[in-house]
Structure to design on (492 residues):
DNA sequence: CCTCCAAAAAATGTGCACATTTGCTTCGTG
DNA sequence: CACGAAGCAAATGTGCACATTTTTTGGAGG
């Protein structure tokens, strides 16, 4: 009885990669949605309880997120949602801006009608979302525009880096972005496409640069929007109601 | 008695982050040096034996390297040194080329005498290494030149990305780069500095582009240079001769 | 001699029982 | 009442014992 195993209905050494992935996705999603506020502590025991999995499962996911720099891991002190400084945010936006300058430079050699058509169609989607006031869709499509640009190069390394920057900025936006007025102006995206259509690289770069500087200028610290750590269970509420305490 | 602990002299739950780091560094170093050939299987038990640490220690390091895409992890089948295709290599070089175009565009606004002086001094080092025929130093300094460029922007995200690309290409070089003739020609680096000195962005970008295309054109598959997996113990030979078998 | 299949051997994956460390509360003293 | 030290509760880190999966081995049959 010392080594009692096989608690309740669960089997032991059974490999279940899908379960890892589910927990990873759940936490990442909460992070990207901005449900997990900056500075919140993510302790292993409560998370294991909430998701109904073993603590090492949680531990592995947490360390993975730490390796991706999505969580701040401190030895012997666990995981916290990082609290980016304004400089950190500027750094991400600037990186995006610099990268896109390079992308556009290269794109000038590859641009064809098919690409222009694709981007034009995307602009229509963006405008539709803006017109109907769908903020969530606008944010998503706004990011997708830049992804389309880099994807046109067909370079996996660059696409990965940009996606990483984008997801990182989307988290930061929840702290630093003014919730009132919105995302990338569609017109500025349109101006980039116009310049590409005219095969005018330097204009495309200039427009892109102005576009980013415009977005960056709107950033500001939103102190009151940090109500600190709320209950973890409510954040992951509808995921897996295994057992609750109290 | 069922739970016997504290085997031989070793302490159990003792935290020892330095040991993790040492193993990580050792394997990463072997990878960067090209001592671990593409396709080699990295099994946990032999590595644990070689480094004299527990298997989970090795396991953690292996998974971390997998998350960084330095090793190829296959569920239930362990870790292998990735076998990059020629397209993979081209992708890394192209990403570097595109990124540097963006970096130079931005750098044009920031370039000052101090930077020019720094780069000029670096060029002198490169020339010295080339003159004295020190190939190892030449490779290292050649990479450092590009790091200096991106570091001048003072953007941590961009610096990290470039460093990542550089370390990745240095691994690939061991498979695809002609060992006979060498690295970035110093003159091409000099031409970039000249263009920067003249504040001529488009020339700097053009030179940089040519520079990379030149390097990329020299890539070719070196089939015979893949003698497959040799003994792991010899690769990590002088690290930690704990115990040997056979 | 080759192919296919079963059984054994080896390697990977996971829960668990601790050891260790951290954080917090409480109590005593100036 | 402030301050610090000791003790206690909770969280993190690690080795180990299996369960599961993959790979190798060894024959039997064509």
């Amino acid at each position: 009885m010392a080594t009692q195993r096989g608690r309740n209905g669960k089997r032991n050494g059974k490999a279940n990669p899908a379960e890892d992935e589910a927990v990873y996705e759940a936490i990442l999603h909460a992070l990207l949605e901005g449900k997990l506020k900056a500075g919140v502590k993510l302790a292993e025991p409560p998370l294991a309880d909430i998701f109904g999995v073993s603590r090492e499962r949680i531990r592995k996911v947490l360390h993975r997120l730490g390796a991706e720099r999505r969580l701040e891991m401190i030895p012997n002190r666990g995981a916290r949602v990082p609290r980016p400084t304004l400089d950190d945010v500027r750094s991400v936006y600037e990186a995006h801006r610099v990268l896109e300058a390079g992308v556009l430079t290269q794109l000038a050699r590859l641009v064809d009608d098919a690409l222009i058509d694709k981007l034009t169609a995307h602009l229509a989607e963006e405008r539709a979302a803006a017109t109907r006031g769908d903020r969530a869709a606008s944010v998503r499509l706004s990011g997708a525009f830049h992804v389309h640009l880099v994807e046109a190069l067909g370079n996996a390394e660059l696409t990965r880096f940009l996606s990483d920057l984008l997801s990182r900025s989307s988290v930061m936006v929840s702290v630093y972005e003014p919730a009132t007025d919105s995302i990338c102006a569609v017109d500025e995206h349109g101006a980039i496409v116009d310049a590409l259509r005219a095969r005018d690289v330097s204009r495309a770069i200039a427009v892109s640069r102005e576009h980013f500087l415009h977005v960056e200028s709107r950033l500001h610290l939103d102190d009151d929007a940090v109500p600190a750590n709320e209950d973890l269970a409510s954040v992951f509420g509808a995921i897996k109601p295994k057992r609750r305490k109290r």
Notes: The longest strand of chain B covers residues 72-74. Residues 3-5, 7, 10, 12-17, 54-57, 75-78 of chain B lie near DNA strand D (CB under 10 Å from a C1').
